[in-house]
Amino acid sequence: MSDFILPDIGEGIVECELVKWLVSEGDIIEEDQPVAEVMTDKALVEIPAPYKGKVTRLYHKEGDIAKVHAPLFELVEEGGDSEQAAAPQTPPSETVSETPASPEPSGANSAATDDSTEDFILPDIGEGIVECEVVEWRVAEGDEIEEDQPVVDVMTDKAMVEITAPKAGRVTKLYHQQQEMARVHSPLFAFIPRERDEPAEAKATSTPAPEPAPSTAKPVATGNRQRIPASPAVRRLVREHDLNLADIAGSGRDGRVLKADVLAHLDKPAASAQGQARAGESQPAIGRARRQPEGEQEVRVEPIRGIKAAMARSMVASATTIPHFIYSEDIDVTDLLKLREQLKPEAEARGSRLTLMPFFMKAMALAVQEFPVLNSRLNDEVTEIHYLSQCNIGMAVDSKAGLMVPNVKGVESRTLLGVADEVARLTEAARSGRVSQEDLKGGTITISNIGALGGTYASPIINAPEVAIVALGRTQKLPRFDANGQVVERSILTVSWAGDHRIIDGGTIARFCNRWKGYLESPQSMLLHLG
Q1: Which of 392, 338, 336, 387 minimizes the C-alpha distance to 365?
Q2: Is there a smaller number of Cβ atoms within 10 Å at the N or the C end of the chain?
Q3: Which residues are 191's β-sheet partners?
């Protein structure tokens, strides 16, 4: 038996992240067989076995940081002394015959359960994602599930993902509570497949006789099996105050624990303390003084996780590392609104919803062809500008899960209706929190439509590694002078650009915005440049 010491993986690397175990404890492995995948600062590295043997211990869990020159796993060489010492003295046939000879009822039952139960291992959800938050369980322990039935919603840094059942069966255990973090490649829930459930239940029904006596205990005390109804917000409040949900009497329907029930439960110790203070007569004011600060304990604490946490990190990195240049402009969209109204019935007849966003995107893709630096990105060392061949325009969507920025790929090669259909699809997916990773990757420039909620001007933060973003304000009816000097009513849209001042100067963004503005104020001029 010996420890496998993590060797030098590369120059200057002293630690790495254990991304994935390719074996389990108890596995027999061959020489040079891949055992684990580890991630260094530079690459994903596969660790092979030094010789044939049996894995007896894994020193790290997936997601842990392993140190170079420290033990990674324990391996018993095949045929080694430890393995021979551990080998049974009796022949295999005797071992088999002994097994049914001394069957403890509880032991046999647990063995049958172990044999029939499967763990569902949380799979790779997306590139680089090692953990996610359990948002909502769709099932409870003991529920029957069908193949491909939604079991749980989990939130990653980028999107809400629905986990479905791999096969039909019965859920036996949920390894995580709601709002807990689950790690990729770790068990998420346990279930008995339907083809194995029948014999398991038959064995269970043959030994229920000794168990009626303990069943006289309080049903809530058997917590794992009997789920107490309560909303996620109530459960969070219970956890914040280190309470047990089973100790709180629920006043809602079917015994549901409400927020008022939790607050009333919290008041009980204070009420009893106040009663004791009155009995002592010497401290009548202390009980009152103690009840006063209880309002301060009402503060709700919500951890920043998932998309909100990812947005917080990326916005801080962008605002602190990119010098932002802000440029604002007014655009007369009167003619654009008229054109949209003319085209809207035909678009609806084709099943498309034509908003102004497809026009903004199409005009931007045309303007980018003349000013490609707006559709570029910098390398990490800020020594090269990479001009991108496609214009993938992102749109910031205010979803329930947080700010998402899916992007329409290749806007320059799509028709106006094609862009409109993609905008509708991505908007619906983002608001439901179910955008695919592919739709979130590869954006080259972003539009944020704050005007849909209100406001005129803004200072948007660049969605790195992009180099520009524009915020659209609300469209207002404002007075303007026409060619004859007469005051007329026009529809004016305010826009605010932010550019990466390392490679975009004021003149470039002004000229680019003027070209984009020209297409929007005279939308028919776009016909001359459509490919």
Answers
A1: 392
A2: C
A3: 118, 171
pLDDT for residue 9: 64
Cα atoms in the Cβ-side hemisphere of radius 13 Å centred on 142: 5
Q: Which two tokens stand for residue 63?
A: 């997601």
32, 41, 267, 505: which is the annotated catalytic residue? 505
Neighbouring CB atoms inside 10 A of 80's CB total 16
Q: Which of 7-21, 265-279, 395-409, 440-454 has the least mean pLDDT? A: 265-279
Q: Which of 59, 28, 32, 29 is nearest to 47 (CA)?
A: 32
Distance between first and last Cα of the chain: 69
Kindly list the distances between the CA atom of residue 332 and the CA atoms of 132, 141, 339, 370, 518, in Å, as whole numbers in the listed order: 45, 60, 13, 22, 9
Is 447 within 8 Å of 395 (Cβ atoms)? Answer: yes
What does the pLDDT look like over 303-332, one tens digit per residue?
Answer: 887 777 878 888 999 999 999 999 999 999
Q: What is the 3-state secondary structure (H, E, C) of 212-240?
A: CCHHHCCHHHHCCCCCCCECHHHHHHHHH
Distance between CA atoms of residues 457 and 451, nearest Å: 9
Bridge partners of 332, per DSSP, are: 492
- In the numeric block, which tokens belong to residue 459? 């200072």
Q: Where are the strands (E) in 341-431, listed by range?
A: 376-378, 385-387, 393-399, 402-404, 407-408
Is 505 catalytic? The answer is yes
What is the DSSP-derived secondary structure letter of residue 151?
Answer: E
Q: Residues 265, 324, 501, 529: which is the catalytic one?
A: 501
Rounded CA-CA distance 389/290 in Å is 67
pLDDT tens by residue, 466-495:
999 999 999 999 999 999 999 999 999 999
